[in-house]
Amino acid sequence: MMASSNTMARCGDIWVFIEHRDGNPARVSLELLGAGRRLADAINVDITAILIGESVSELAKELIYWGADTVIVADDPIAGAYSTEVYTRIIADQALKRMPEVLLIGATEIGRDLAPRIAARLNTGCTADCTELDIDEETGVLVATKPYFGRNLMADIICPLKRPQMVTVRPGVMELKDRYSDRRGELIYVDVDLREEDTRITVIDSIPSSYGGVPLEEADKVVCAGIGVGNREGFELIRELAELLGAQLGATSLPVDEEWISEDHKIGQTGKTIRPKLYIGCGVSGAIQHSAGMINSELVVAINNDPRAEIFQFADYGIIGDVNEIVPALIRQLKIAREAVGSDAAI
Q1: Which residue has the higher pLDDT, 156 or 320?
Q2: Structural class in CATH, domain 14-198
Q3: Is a pLDDT exceeding 90 seen at residue 92?
Q4: 22 in the Ramachandran plot: left (φ > 0), alpha (ψ -120 to 50) or beta?
């Protein structure tokens, strides 16, 4: 049983909470399995995924391929839809029984809601919105790094006296590791000791997000609208470009503040962190508030009429000119190319 002071020497595995939707794991959860694998190997422990839901057996097997040694599976109709109350109780109960060293949770809407409740239940600390993780091989103390003061300072935060050490990690900041279908691991099914009458909240319905596809932080291609689009008409051109490319549409603060697009499309320190294969910034200045959220993009294309714009400092390709002239030209050429191949698919 866990000591009442919740202080202990290293004694457990690295845990990763698996967020999922429609039977598919959130990309950030897979990223954390990769990060957790590195931490677990450093202190010679296993990595455990904790999966909660209904009819999730196939997903549980898939997590082994992504790096988990063990998957704790709470499969029950009462956990079919996310509930802070239900998930907190299941995870906290299992943590008290099995005493993990570290618990990693994605800093998504669900993760930011869930993590502090678990930390309070377990009487431990939780470092939020981390961008780097390391671990002391001798003590098992996790070093969680996060930016402060507009990313001008980086703070290393530790929790040496409490277990589990908890962090939430922003999607897109950790590298997605390879999937290996020949990996083997263990599935542990646990009973959910909850009834409907034990819960105070009932999920009546779920409303799909406005993405119309994969979440922004999981997209391979992102087209982003910045202050340089000027007005709603300019913004709609960027939307059309994104649709032609089969890309997700992102934005800096101005389009969100003007309510041309919802908050969940915002990229930056106060929005999403993305890691696409292709990022196209249209009228984006590249200020740190935004660039902190997209700097890990593989290929960056920037369109801006100011040759001194900060975005050009880390762009692979730069186009200097008026975004409201260049984007329509790109749209015309993409339409010609699509007509030439005789397909309505994205280029």
Answers
A1: 320
A2: alpha beta
A3: yes
A4: left
Domain boundaries, the chain: 14-198, 216-341
Strand order in the sheet with 132-135: 132-135, 142-148, 153-157
Residue 270's pLDDT is what? 78
d(CA 299, CA 9): 44
Q: Do domains 14-198 and 216-341 have the same CATH topology?
A: yes
Q: Which residue has the tokens 């202190």?
A: 43
Nearest partner of 113 among 141, 80, 91, 146, judged by Cα: 91
CB distance 166 to 124 below 8 Å: yes
pTM of the predicted protein model: 0.75
Q: What is the pLDDT of residue 268?
A: 86
The structure tokens listed for 59 are: 């997903």
Distance CA 147, CA 221 (A): 26
Tell me which of 3.40.50.1220, 3.40.50.2000, 3.40.50.300, 1.10.1330.10 is the CATH number of domain 216-341.
3.40.50.1220
The pLDDT tens digits for 103-143 are: 999 998 899 999 999 999 999 999 998 888 998 888 889 98
Residue 5 binned pLDDT confidence (cut-offs 50, 70, 90)? very low
Q: What is the DSSP string of 284-328?
A: ----HHHHTTTTT-SEEEEEES-TT-GGGGS-SEEEES-HHHHHH
